[in-house]
Amino acid sequence: MLRRDDIENWSVCGEFTIRKALELIDRSAIGILLVLDADGKLMGTITDGDVRRGLLRGLKLDNVGMEVVNASPITVDVASIRSEVAAIMSDRSIRHLPIVEHDKVVGLWLNESKSDTSRLPAVLMAGGLGTRLGDLTQDTPKPLIDVGGQPILGHIISHLKKAGVENVMITTRYLAEKIETHFGNGEDWGVNIEYIREQDRLGTAGALKRLEGRVHSPFLVMNGDLLTDFNVAEMLSFHEENGAHMTVGVRHYSIRVPFGVVEVDGLKVSGISEKPTFDFFVNAGVYIVSPELLPLIECDRLFDITELMERGLEDGKEIISFPIFEDWLDVGRPEDLDKARSRF
C-alpha cells in the first residue's frame, strides 16, 4: 500500500496534456496517475491503457489530459481491510485501488502481480531476404546489420531482456547459419534462444504453425528489423484484460495530400479540401498471439500474419489493436537505416 505522503509521485492537479500524463505514469513506475482537484479530492484516474484507448479514438498526445481520465474509478474506504481489497482487485481484474476518506485520497492499494513477461515467449521473424537494402544484405542478413555497434536483432533482444522476456525463438532462412552463429543459445544475451529454420518461404506466420502444441499461453511475435522501445508488459496486460486472441501493435501515420482534393458526385463538384491530411493506424509489426489461433494456419505454405488476422476475424476470434506511441522504426530501406544509425 502506498501512503498519502507519497501522493505527489503518482498524482496530478491542474492542467496537463496526455503526453504529460504518460511522463508522470512512467516516472512513478506504478502504472497509474490519480487526478486530483485543488482540495485533494479524486476526480479520476489514468492508466497506460486509458491513454492507448484514447489514441484509438483519434486523440493526440498533446490533447488535454482530462480527455482520457476514467472519471468513475473503483475506490475503497480507508477502513477496508486487506482481504476485502484483494477480493475486489481479483474480481474486477484491476491492479490499483485508490483509498479515500471523505472523497480525499489517503493512499493507494497496488497489486504487484502485474502481467508476467517472463512467461511470454517471443518469436522474432528473421528469415527475410532484405532486398530493399540492396548490396548491404548480399552477404549479411538484415537482422545482423550494424546499428550503433550492435546488430538490429541484438537491439531487439536487449529490449526484450530488459522487459523481462526470458525465452526467444528466431525464425531463420536466408543466411540462417550467420544469425545462429552470432546469437548462439542466447547465453551471452541473457536469454534462452532457439531457432525455427525455414527450408521454404513460409511468410510472416507460416513458421508459427510449428508452435502448435508447444505453447499454451500468449506469445509475442515481432518483425526482426524493428527498432522500438514499446512497453512489452503493458501490451501483454492490454491483451489479457481485453480477452483478446490477437493484439496487433499499430502506429499512427499521417499522409498530407499536396493538392486540393475535389469531391465529385457524377458531373457535379460537391466540395473541395485544400491539401488535406489523412490519418491512419498502420501495422507496426508487433503482435501478441494466443495459441487458439494456431490451428487456423495452414501447413507448409506461404501464410502471412495478415491472413491469420483475416482467418481469425472470420472465425469470430477477438482481434484488437494496441497503439505504439513509443519510439518505433522499421529498418527496411537505406534511408531508414541512415535514420537508425543517426539515433544510436
TrEMBL record:
<dbReference type="InterPro" id="IPR005835">
    <property type="entry name" value="NTP_transferase_dom"/>
</dbReference>
<dbReference type="Pfam" id="PF00483">
    <property type="entry name" value="NTP_transferase"/>
</dbReference>
<dbReference type="InterPro" id="IPR050486">
    <property type="entry name" value="Mannose-1P_guanyltransferase"/>
</dbReference>
<keyword id="KW-0129">CBS domain</keyword>
<dbReference type="InterPro" id="IPR046342">
    <property type="entry name" value="CBS_dom_sf"/>
</dbReference>
<dbReference type="InterPro" id="IPR000644">
    <property type="entry name" value="CBS_dom"/>
</dbReference>
<protein>
    <submittedName>
        <fullName>CBS domain-containing protein</fullName>
    </submittedName>
</protein>
<feature type="domain" description="CBS">
    <location>
        <begin position="1"/>
        <end position="61"/>
    </location>
</feature>
<dbReference type="Pfam" id="PF00571">
    <property type="entry name" value="CBS"/>
</dbReference>
<dbReference type="InterPro" id="IPR029044">
    <property type="entry name" value="Nucleotide-diphossugar_trans"/>
</dbReference>
